[in-house]
Amino acid sequence: MANHDPRFDTYIANAAEFAGPILEHLRELVHATCPEAGESMKWGMPFFSHRGTSLCMMAAFKQHCGFGFWLAREVVGETSEGGMGQFGKLTSVKDLPSKPRLTAYLRKAMALNEAGVKLARPKTAAKPAPTVPDDLSALLAQKKHAAARKTYAGFSPAAQREYIDWIAEAKTDATRQKRIASTLEWLAEASSETGNIRNAEGTWPMIRIATVEDADAIHAIYAPSVIHGTATFETALPGVEAMRERIRSRLQHYPWLVWDEAGEVLAYAYAGRFRERAAYDWIAETSIYVHAHAQRRGIARRLYGALLDVMRLQGINQAVGVITLPGTVSVALHEAMGFTAAGVWRQCGYKLGQWWDVGVWQMSLQPAAASPSPTVPFAQFRHSPRLHDLLADAASAPATPLP
Prior knowledge:
This protein has 13 helices and eleven strands. It has helices spanning 6-14, 19-33, 72-75, 99-114, 134-140, 146-154, 157-168, 173-189, 215-227, 240-250, 299-314, 328-337, 385-395, and strands at 38-42, 45-50, 53-60, 65-69, 205-209, 256-261, 264-273, 283-290, 318-324, 340-351, 354-364.
């Protein structure tokens, strides 16, 4: 049928033996109730759509299946404590609600879609502004530091925290005083608009440097790619503490940026070492992940563009994106940014019950010097006003979603 995706057939065929009848039953019931339902794969799971909006989804795991509605609370009214979706861990068709009951749920979900009801995205309360240390506060209060005070007041709490944390991390009083002096100098030079761009909804979209406090949000964005997807070949979801350590260690040498709206992290991007040998110092691998609810808003292009610009400041000449194929959206993003295909690694990763090809996309960031200077570790300039201005400009650039 025209609205059947052959990837569903492959997914069902590769599922555990017990899962096949469950998935087939659900697929048949969805199309019987909603003949115009479309099929697509999202995050490695079969999704059904209705009038261009997600309707429901199903998934098969090693020992159980899951089924759920996109507008879960509006359709079912409550969420199951165990398993994906709203009906617990399914091991047979008998574990599902009756056919009339599921049909009623599907019709309710269709009616909600037709009425234009959208999934409510939970809002995270914005973090309060950090407490300014007494020594810095006293200096900011002085007349000669009026420009620095004005710039600092214009920063979002997250941007303010970057400076406060940097000062607090000083091991000696001498280092602390040097950092305070540098902070005042940078604040005086920086634009008062840095990190402070308001959008039409009155929130503050901002590209900023990740901190360990972002680990929970980053973990939540990353989890679907580990559990259900192939954007990463990691198969065991790391804990939040492990994510904190990844952020902390990577920022010593490479940028890790986040897209922040009113304290809510919606996307992140980072660079990392491509190969261990010293001759590879001038090339870095890049990655980007965007929350499902924030896609197709042009966030990825702006965030990725900022990452590439920061890498240029470091003296990195080449960026490499490694994409699990077909990776249609990722390929489109990389090519829109100026990456070109550089090769394919055949059947190099086994995940979700099958072998995957991986494509390599490469981008020249700047001409390679005959005798290149060493690249600059990110930690050495992460507090510079030039960097903060670069991130602010990227956040305020026009949104251009992928076609």
